[in-house]
Every structure is written in structure tokens, then in C-alpha cells.
Amino acid sequence: MATTEQPTSRRPPAPTQLIAKERYTSQEFLNSELDTMWSRVWQIACLESDIPNPGDYCEYTIGLESVLVVRGFDGVVRAFLNVCQHRGRQLRQGAGNTHQLRCPFHGWTWNLDGTLAEAPEREEFCPFANEEVALVDVRVDQWEQFIFINLNPDAEPLLEYLGAIPERLKGHKLSGQYKWFSRSTTLPVNWKTALDAFQEAYHGRFVHAESIHFVDYVDNPIELLDRHSVLSATFGVPDRLINVETDVDTMLDAMEWTFAAFGEDTQLIGALRSMNLPEGTLLREVLIPLIAGGMAELGIDVSELSETELVDDWEYFIFPNVELHVLSFGAWMFRTRPIDDDPESMIFDMWYFHKVPDGMETPPPAEHIHVPNGETCGAVMDQDFRQVEVQQRGFHSAGFKGLRLSTMETRISHMHDVLDRYINS
Questions:
Q1: CA 352 to CA 235: how far, in whole Å?
Q2: What one-character DSSP code corresponds to residue 360?
Q3: Residues 6+ apart with CB under 8 A from 398
Q4: DSSP alpha helix (H) spans, 136-189
Q5: In this structure, are residues 407 and 12 in contact, taking their beta carbons and an 8 Å threshold?
Q6: Mean pLDDT, residues 109-126
Q7: Cα–Cα distance between 255 and 259 in angstroms, integer?
Q8: Residues 10 and 219: beta-carbon distance below 8 Å
Q9: What is the 8-class DSSP label of residue 8?
Q10: Tell me: the pLDDT tens digits for 30-75?
């Protein structure tokens, strides 16, 4: 079994300064983010499987900007600013398949490589060259099955931007996973308010109290990876801060609730119940060999994963807006984005993945579903969404001076530090 190098310190020190609450409410601050950060970072726009065929396209929005990611008839993936060069109408919304990009307003049409195909009654215009009205290219690149875009034409290469992330995650074989769950929702909060809830485990024992007999929320290590970061949540043991009586059945109930909250198969819990585990057994001790053997039986290679990667929830943050939880059987991905130029409105995307056994064809991705106001997104997500909505309102109180963070929340303060690097540069 492979080993994972642990950070020399369990967590970075707590920040000594408050995080200004205006960073979550101010129109001026959001404008700065859009101008200096969102316009210069690599962002996951879609998956390779979202545009598998020639003519497939997928729209990605960030703030007021819209980008079309398109697979051409030559198989090449390109990205363009989604705007007609005639009168500024957006060309497409959502996702679909087309042989050309035609503006519904006046019929101006572009090929899938961004070159002009047709301008109706062109002779009525002052002369212009086709190159003058070509669609505006957007940088596009791919890591694993994730297709990224960057609005900055001079941005550093994607792999350089990702730093240590690809090497750290190579054992999870993310390209060998399929998206079985695809859901998004809108929330009346700042995009960072929702993101922060998934940057720490400190809230877990109170907001997700059903899980405390299966998840230990004490002493979860945090490591900073340049722009990015990682936290490891310990599964298979009770939370040490809540000193309550527990037994094997209670631990199994908590495990079942935790995985059912994300719609995951709970057959493993049934198998564990049938084993009649003796009292005093820690599920973690049983799960490590059971998961390793079960994955091998399914034909899923987990040989590059350490024991803690087999059983725990490793939560990787890819700056600025992606939280990727990698587990032995797959991954849960969360993506946050501001809506238009509203500092207190955002989109929250949830993509869940399962590993595919060797030799088996990868199923197509699940149909995407959008639900309003954080409804029916699973028990854990619903609990978090209700908290952050009330938190956002609290930011406006005269009695609240700013965020006071602990060592358990240093991924939040680190994200703000990286954000400031963009704003101040």
C-alpha cells in the first residue's frame, strides 16, 4: 500500500487578524474580484464527457461573462466569449449540439472554429474583414477529465497553475470516473460564504450531528499547496470532542446516514451489520481491509492509495472555487460562482463521481438538474445551505465586526490571502 507524506505540522497557525465582513457583502469588492481575479484564473468549465461529440457545446458563466466551450468537427475543444460580433447578443445558452453558431437575432453565423460563416446582407455594411468579426478566443486546457478555461490570454499553463494537485491526486485516477450525479442550485449568499462551509470541518458536529459517531471532527490536518489546500476528515471513528456513549450499531447508523446524505449506495453498511462486529470495534479498522478487498474484487485499482486515502475524506481545494472530495470509490465536487454582478447571489454546482472497473465502458454523465434555493440536494447539503443563508444576513449586523478564524479554518484565511495576491498585483 502506498504512503502519503503528512505535513510537518497538523495545521497552519490561526490568523491574528479578522477577515473583513465587507468582502462578503460589498459590490465594490465583488467588482475587484471580477476585474482582477476571475479574469485571470483557471476555472473548471465542464467535463470532457459533457461535450463528447463534434458540435457539442457547453456554456460556462462567471459574473456577467459567458463562455462557450465547443468541440469542433476536427475533435478539438475550443472556447469563445459567447457574444455576437454584430449587436452583442449571446449566441447560445446552456448545452447542446450544433453544426454552426448562429445568432438568433439577425442570423450572423460562425463556424465551430470561431471563423465567420455568414453575415446576411453583408453588402449593406461598411467593408470589414472576416478576421475582425471572428469570435474571441478564450484559453482552454484539460487536466484529467476536467476542461478548464482562463479569460487571461497570457495566463500561465494549466499544469503550472495546479502545482502539486495533479501529482497528489494521480492515484485516484479521476479520468476513470463518471459523473452519476449533476445538480446545481442558486443561493442568496456570497460565493465565498457557501465555499467557506466546505473549507473546514469545525461545524460538522453541530450542523451534521447525525454523523458524529462515524466522523471525528477533532485534529483534522490541513496542508497549504501554494494557491490550493487540502484537509483530511477522519472517517470510521466517533468524534472525540462529543463525549457520548457509542456502540457498533450506532456507528453503523451514523455511517449509513453520512453516505445516504450524498445518495451513495449503502450496501456496505448492510454487509458490516451482518458481520456481527464485537463491541469496542472501530469501524475504521474493519473498513480499510474491507474496502481494499472490495475494490480489487470489482477490478478497481487502489494500489496507489494509502490506508487513510482508502477510508477518509480528503478534501482538495482548487483555487478559486472548487472543492474536490476524493474517496476510495469516487469523488464529490462542489463549485461556487457569483451570479452576474450581485455580491449576494451565487450558483452552487454539485458533481458526484464513481470509479469505473477496469475494462468496463464509462457510462455517460447524468442529466443535469437545477433546483431552486438549495432544495433537495441531500441531507448534508440542505443542512449547510440553511446555515449559510442565515450567516449571510448576519454579515449586515452592526454587532459583527469580521470573521475570527481558528487553525481549523486556515484554508479560509489562506484563500483570502491568495485572493489578495490577485487584487493587489
A1: 19
A2: S
A3: none
A4: 158-162, 165-169
A5: yes
A6: 98
A7: 6
A8: yes
A9: S
A10: 999 999 999 999 999 999 999 999 999 999 999 999 999 999 999 9
